[in-house]
Amino acid sequence: MLQCRLPRTEAARMRELSVPPSPSRRRLLAAAGAAALLSACGRAEPKLQLHGIDLSLRPGFGGDFRLLDPQGRERTLADFYGKPVLLFFGFTLCPDVCPTALTRAVQIRKLLGADGARLQVLFVTLDPARDTPPVLQAYTQAFDPSFIGLSGSEQRIAETAKAFRVVYAKVPTGATYTIDHSALSYVYDAHGRLRMALRHEQSAAECVDDIRQIL
């Protein structure tokens, strides 16, 4: 694990000489130590002012994934390093939530202007039995040719969804079923850090306001 190593402080040198620093000097040394720590470790990320949900300080939430694209290639965050990523969980037979989310993603890319081409949209299916690779590819590309559908085994998808706190369940409808699921869109920055969740009710313009803060 990366650790910050600071140069010896004046307090350390004085301890070696058995000269205890005065209270005022201790305060000065503490302030100097904090300044040195910021310099050595890098300043903290500025707090995001979002319409959505700030996930920057939620360790263990989301993280990486290992899923298959329609060509059968395993995809992870490393494949998209250098690009901000918008990730959404759904299924191709979804009647309203999923097409609404992907239509909004198209609008977001347009509103971002030149930065829009950098935004990689990923659609993770919650229904791998019916969302075969050809179906998944045709669905995502109907919205935008750059969108990528991701799938995997039922277990792998369940593990990935759990990491993002995605709630979903099959609901019988006659001879078939639909899937009820949560509807947040997750956004990584270009360094592969999960930074925010966009609420389903946010407008495309509000999403752009949020995303610009991490570009």
Describe the protein:
The chain has 215 residues and is of the alpha+beta class. It has two domains: 10-41; 53-212, Glutaredoxin (3-Layer(aba) Sandwich). It contains six helices and ten strands. The chain has helices at residues 10-16, 23-41, 97-111, 133-143, 154-163, 204-212, and strands spanning 53-54, 67-68, 74-75, 85-90, 120-125, 148-150, 168-173, 176-181, 185-188, 194-198. The strands form three sheets. Strands 1-10-9-4-5-6 form a six-stranded mixed beta sheet. Helix 4 (133-143) links the parallel strand 5 (120-125) and strand 6 (148-150). Helix 3 (97-111) packs across helix 6. The radius of gyration is 23 Å and the shape is globular. Mean pLDDT is 84; it is low at 1-43.
The count of domains is: 2
Largest sheet geometry: 6 strands, mixed
Q: Can you write the helix and strand succession as a string?
A: HHEEEEHEHEHEEEEH
What is the terminal separation in angstroms? 27 Å
Helix count from the secondary structure assignment: 6
CATH class of the largest domain: Alpha Beta
Strand proportion: 15-25%
The portion of residues assigned to helices is 25-40%
- Uncertain stretches: 1-43
What's the alpha carbon Rg, rounded to whole Å?
23 Å
The name CATH uses for the topology of the largest domain is Glutaredoxin
CATH superfamily placement of the largest domain: Glutaredoxin
Shape: globular
Placed side by side, the strands forming the largest sheet appear as 1-10-9-4-5-6
Structural class: alpha+beta
Q: Averaged pLDDT, please?
A: 84
The CATH architecture of the largest domain comes to 3-Layer(aba) Sandwich
